[in-house]
């Protein structure tokens, strides 16, 4: 790794920590213009697919109508591929000995092998101590946290969910998934839902250091 790349990595880590602090005290709590990429588009325009391509995993909620009801700050952290250095097959060589002599270490090594064979994981800001190796569980946690913040309805909020994904297959980036823009309210949505969403979108894309990634369906 070059000196320049190392400096950029440290800068991104600092930015991520500042974003975490900003999310904890409210987006407006820190008036900072941080570099980020905001993904904007209409409902069902394919924003989730674009974001998942950055990660190479399916982990965002899907469905009809408005699914992303609050901003999701996605911090991608590139990590070394530890599986290339110390892989699960090598650990398997020790298991017969461990089974007969050291049952405790058998448990420890198996748990270690699971970690090494699954170098990709996610961590939510609201659950800092838990690592999610199953990306289906990440999807479910996004749904649960959305309902906790907004309720089991179709309303929207500017209060973000922050998720970090550690993987050897990603670049160091910060992306923001924003609620899809809509024109007409449905079911229990307020009549001004379109203005609420536009207000949220403008709040995140207005900073000068924000790069806007506009997504449009190919059939439109």
Q: Would you spell out the secondary-structure blueprint of this structure?
A:
Layout: H1 3-25, E1 36-41, H2 47-55, E2 72-78, H3 88-92, H4 95-101, H5 103-117, E3 121-124, E4 127-132, H6 135-150, E5 161-167, E6 173-177, H7 193-205, E7 210-215
Parallel strand pairs: 1-6, 1-7, 2-5
Antiparallel strand pairs: 2-6, 3-4, 3-5
Describe this structure in words.
This protein is of the alpha/beta class and 220 residues long. It contains seven helices and seven strands. The protein has helices at residues 3-25, 47-55, 88-92, 95-101, 103-117, 135-150, 193-205, and strands at residues 36-41, 72-78, 121-124, 127-132, 161-167, 173-177, 210-215.
What distance lies between the first and last C-alpha atoms, to the nearest angstrom? 43 Å
Estimate the mean pLDDT confidence. Answer: 77
Question: What is the top-level CATH class of the largest domain?
Answer: Alpha Beta
What letter string, H or E per element, gives the SSE order? HEHEHHHEEHEEHE
In the residues, how many domains can be counted?
A: 2
Shape: globular
Number of E-state strands: 7
The CATH architecture classification of the largest domain is 3-Layer(aba) Sandwich
* CATH level 3 topology of the largest domain: Rossmann fold
Any low-confidence stretches, pLDDT <50, length ≥5?
83-95, 103-117
Q: What's the tally of helices?
A: 7
Output the strand order for the largest sheet. 4-3-5-2-6-1-7
Q: Compute the gyration radius: what is it?
A: 20 Å
Biggest β-sheet description: 7 strands, mixed
Structural category: alpha/beta
